[in-house]
Design a protein that fits this description.
Blueprint lengths: L19 E4 L5 E2 L4 E9 L4 E8 L7 H8 L1 E6 L5 E10 L2 E9 L7 E7 L4 E8 L1 H9 L2 H12 L1
Length: 154
């Protein structure tokens, strides 16, 4: 991917707004020794923060290196896909929480968030996110709902 100017980073996340929140039922994808699930998605006026959880119960290894080495996420939408960058990772032991910044805000419509972690036997997992879920999350945030209204008018 080619960027004209600076690529997006976690520093681009708006600090002056309260995001809407999409919560997930923790429907994990399993590999032989690992599990992956979406914890939540925060909806901002300019993009999304996707919170993923990776767990490897009983595996004695550097989970930080395991995740950074082969774990990947992506998005399929009805329009252009946002650029997704990792902006934070935390955790210890056999659990790792990873935050991804996805920008720009997706076009209205259905979303399919997917992940791959082939090193842990997870070749493909996918979560469907209906357009109505984004709209409901945006209504919970005064700044985000205003931004969504402006986008709808244009």
């Amino acid at each position: 991917m080619t960027f004209f100017g600076e690529p997006p980073s976690g520093n681009d996340i708006p600090e002056d707004e309260v995001p809407g929140r999409l919560l997930f039922g923790r429907a994990p994808a399993y590999g032989p020794q690992a599990a992956v699930y979406v914890d939540q998605i925060n909806v901002h006026s300019t993009g999304l923060v996707i919170h993923m959880e990776c767990r490897t119960p009983g595996v004695e290894a550097d989970l930080q290196q395991m995740v950074r080495g082969a774990f990947r996420i992506g998005v399929r939408t009805g329009g252009p896909a946002p650029v997704i960058v990792e902006y934070r990772a935390s955790g210890r032991g056999d659990a790792r929480s990873i935050g991804y910044w996805a920008t720009p805000l997706p076009a209205p419509g259905e979303w399919h968030l997917f992940a791959r972690w082939p090193d842990q036997g997870i070749d493909h997992c996918e979560w469907h996110i209906p357009a109505a879920a984004f709209e409901a999350a945006a209504v919970k945030s005064p700044v985000s709902s205003r931004a969504m209204a402006i986008r709808a008018e244009s």
